[in-house]
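Suppose you are handed a protein chain with no further information: no name, no annotation, nothing but its sequence. What can you learn? This example shows the usual starting point.
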Amino acid sequence: MNIKRAIISVYDKTNLEDLASFLFHNGVEIICTEGTNKYLEEKGIPTVKMADYIGFPEILGGRVKSIDPKLAGGILAKSNDKKHEEDMINYNIKRIDMVVGNFPTFEEIAKKTKNEESLLEYIDIGGYSLLRSAAKNYKDVVALVDPKDYQIVIDNLEDCGDVPLQLRRKLALKVFFSTSKYDASIHKTFSELFAAEKFDHEFFEILGNLRYGSNPMQEAILMKFLGKESFLDYLENLTFHKKPTLRIVKDIKLLFHLASFTNNEFLGFAKKGIFVFGYSSPTEGEKEQFVRIIRELKGGVVYSDDLNVITELKNSKHDGLMTSYNFEKKEEIISFKPMVFRVNKRVLKRDEEYIVDGDLVAKQNVQEIVLNLSPSEELGFEVAKIHKSDTAVYVRNNLICSGNQSCLNREIALNALENTLEKFEVCLNEGTIIFDSPINSEKIIDAILNSKIEKVIVPPTLPGYEKYLKILEEKGVTLLVTQRRYHRY
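A reasonable first move is to predict its three-dimensional structure. Written in structure tokens, the prediction is:
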């Protein structure tokens, strides 16, 4: 076996006993820092203390324990470089073939303390340097930072006595990523502590390619925030031979949120990232009408928990069908024309979100607004919160409908709502309207009164527009004014 000497210094000791035991029983000399040495000795695995190996004790309260030319030289020496070989002989440096190390994420540490001195003491120096050195010299040294990779290294060493170059490269890349993320979290922690947030860091996990981005001429890669929950974690593409587009993913995200938000059965249609029409707890008659009308539309995504609805739309011209139904035979899905996605409902909440538009990036806090509403009104209010200003959402009994979003003004949003309702053979009559911007014209008041709307939900009014709310109150319309604006942007 090509591994003769290894350094192990880890915070996360998951799977460590298996790796260390394998190395020891294959004659590998294991060099450890105090904490790791104690852990492995208790497991019956003999190791050499790093202080004994380099002939120098840990000093400065543990700040200096693994910074030494014997360690760095043994890791960074190239096997095919004669000058390196000469230096190693002259200075009695032994080659090190493997470095195993990890450290706690700085986010974990920052949750425990905000004390500056304590935080500074937690910054890893030596172990961090050893890992980067091993990754730099990956052709000669195996760098291991992730306990999940221990077994594949063991398997390769058992099979052929070495770790293939391709795997060494992969492991080295993981080290560089881990150390860069570690540095970024240190910077973020101290930026917040020193109130000097000039830069921000986010890391993304690449999930794969999309069919295309905003239009068929654009390529796109699908990513999610690293280490954070996403609706994509609870989504299974049953038509795995097809890839979604960005537009489809936006519709899926919206419908996933709404379906997860309610415990009732949900039936909905979204297109271009806009919730268009749907029901909470639909009746059989409403399902039949929905299918009949929706079948004539092209594009967009339909959500239903009813297998019959999904099956009725198997030859439709929609982009996708979503359901929580668990298909026993996934092979039958291959014959569906739309893509089919199975969801595991989960309410996901974020404290902040990013809005990206070309080279412009905005980061904003997400503030929850809790209202006492009926289940259908709650869904309608979620639609208003998700959509861009201006939009109007209509709720009547178990029906939820939205005509458009990002309209020029509230009047146009109301017209778009009426046009959409007409498409679905519904009249704007009674029920509740949710605006995501203040009412600011008599035309809106007239439309509300003419349609006999019973309830209006709006954000706080602007100066000079109080008169419109007063008119509605005098006419007996129930008003619910929230404490703040709630649309996304």
